[in-house]
Amino acid sequence: MSSRNLDDTQSEILNQFQAITHTDDVDAAVNRLIHYDWNLERAVESVYDPSNSHDATREALEEEVASSAQQQQRQDTPSIQRPPTAPQPRTGVFALFAWPFGIAWNMTWSILSFVMRLLSRPSITHTQSSSTSNRQDTRTLAQQFKRDFELKFGETHVEFFQGGYSQALETARRDLRFLFVVLQSDEHDDTEDFCRNTLTSQDLVDYMAQHNILVWAGNVRETEAFQVAGTLRATTYPFMAIIALQQMGGNNGLRMTVVDRIEGIALPATIIQRLERANRRHSAGMNRLRMERDQRDMERRLREEQDRAYRESLRADQAKERQAQEAREAAAKAAEESQRAEQARQELEEKREQYIRHLCSTLAEEPNDAYNGQVAKINFRLADGTRVVRKFRGEDTIEALYHFVEAYPLLKNEQDQQHVEAPEGYTHKYNFTVISSYPRVAHEFSSTTQLNQVKSLWPTATLIVEADDNDDDHDDDDE
Q1: Which is nearest to 179 in space by CA: 194, 158, 197, 149?
Q2: 331-336-338 Cα angle (round to 5)
Q3: Element (H, E) at 180
Q4: How is the chain split among helix, strand and coil, in percent rounded to 5?
């Protein structure tokens, strides 16, 4: 709105606002005054004390209702009493003469009001706690209103919303419910009769409960209820307003709207009748909104269920894949370990065979008849039942017996034994034990005990070669 389109009253308020706030931006000042419905005190307060401004969402709801209340007030209804027509700005010489005094008076009043508000503000050190206290005031007032009502009129009454007016608007909008606002004044004679006979009526209580109507009530002696009365343009008490969420024309979307007003004392039947009429007129739109909301909720729940099922399926698939991967890795590891074990076994077998060939190539020759030294004649019965007789020198050790038994399978098959080196890093283990048959004596491997020192081996002996059934093998020193 341009400053050229302002009437005399608006121009006067604009001049006062600029004088108080020292602003030269006319357009910004006009926009702020329009936002606060040309309420000079609230507009000035919003400049110097922005901490007292309402939550944006709740303020928007209040502005919606205030706008619709002005339109609803113009409609003719039997129970509505129109407020007196506001006086028109004076014209003529007297008006021109009185205009400067009017400006001075309004500026003085605005400044004094603003200064009083600033003086009553909490200190900066208590800003946060005070803000919390202010937010709790509306709930406290609602609880106090209910307690006072029940002390005087009993506990049977319509269910009062335990919160502030803007909170009630939010709840009604969110839940798609009718909001029934009740304002009363202790200065009106009809207040007590209205509270005692109407708000406690069982018929009205049941109707409100059955139709899930939200009821907010307040006494205009309290600041919030007084401001609500101004917003809803209440002129006669008790005052009632029916508010509902409506689809507006054009691109205005959904707005909380005053759909009916009841001013003055009213019987329960009258209120129920007005609520029924509002329900007939506006329930179709609200039912459609509920269906759309329910459809959105159902689609949202369906998406959530699908997402949950997908996540669970994905987790199950991932678990299966993880288990399969672990099984593959375990199988690969087992195969690798088996391969390494087989390779180690083969290498050990090759070294064992090499060592036995080494024994064959290094085994001392059997003493013949030309040998002049001591000779021991040993008769072996091998593990496979084969019998063989072999002569050993008397100074040979028991180790020579083990060498012969280990090398014999190759000795009997090979005539020419070529020299073979012992494998590196290999310790040979004998898987048998030589035993004297009678008396039974086990001759353990020894590289130091000579044959002529053992009575059961010298000068002749019969030995049995028994394969070991356990892992107690005999070690041989590296040659």
Answers
A1: 158
A2: 95
A3: strand 179-184
A4: 55, 15, 30
Domain topology for 363-475: Ubiquitin-like (UB roll) (3.10.20)
101-159 pLDDT, tens digit per residue, is 555 655 654 555 444 444 444 332 233 334 444 444 788 899 999 999 999 999 999 99
User: What is the model's pLDDT at position 473?
Assistant: 46
At 321, which amino acid appears? Answer: E
Lowest-confidence pick of 85-94, 289-298, 369-378? 85-94
From 80-94, 318-332, 439-453, the region with the lowest mean pLDDT: 80-94
367 pLDDT more than 80: yes
Which residue type sits at 176?
L
Amino acid symbol at 359? L
Asked whether 52 and 36 are in contact (CB, 8 A), the reply is no
Residue of 366, 448, 376, 437 lying closest to 408 (CA atoms): 366
What's residue 37's pLDDT? Answer: 77
Domain with CATH 3.40.30.10 in the chain: 56-86+136-309
CATH class for the region spanning 1-48+94-121:
mainly alpha
What mean pLDDT value characterizes the chain? 81
> Residue type at 87?
P
| Domain span(s) for CATH 1.10.8 in the chain | 1-48+94-121
- How far is residue 203 from each of residues 148, 159, 165, 180, 212, measured CA to CA in Å? 22, 13, 25, 16, 14
Q: Could you tell me the two tokens for 263?
A: 């001013």
Q: How many residues does the chain have?
A: 479
pTM over 0.90: no
Nearest-5° Cα angle at 453, 448 to 457: 105
- Domain spanning 56-86+136-309, CATH class: alpha beta
Give the C-alpha separation, 51 to 49, whole Å. Answer: 5
Q: Where in the chain is the domain with CATH 3.10.20.90?
A: 363-475
One-letter amino acid of 217 = A
Contacts of 17 (CB under 8 A, 6+ apart): 23, 29, 32, 33, 40, 43, 44
- Asked if residue 5 has pLDDT above 80, the reply is no
What pLDDT is stored for residue 476 in this prediction? 46
Tell how strand 429-430 and strand 474-475 pair up.
antiparallel
User: What's the rounded Cα separation, in Å, for the pair 302 and 225?
Assistant: 43
Q: Taking the CB of residue 36, how many other CB atoms lie within 10 A of it? A: 18
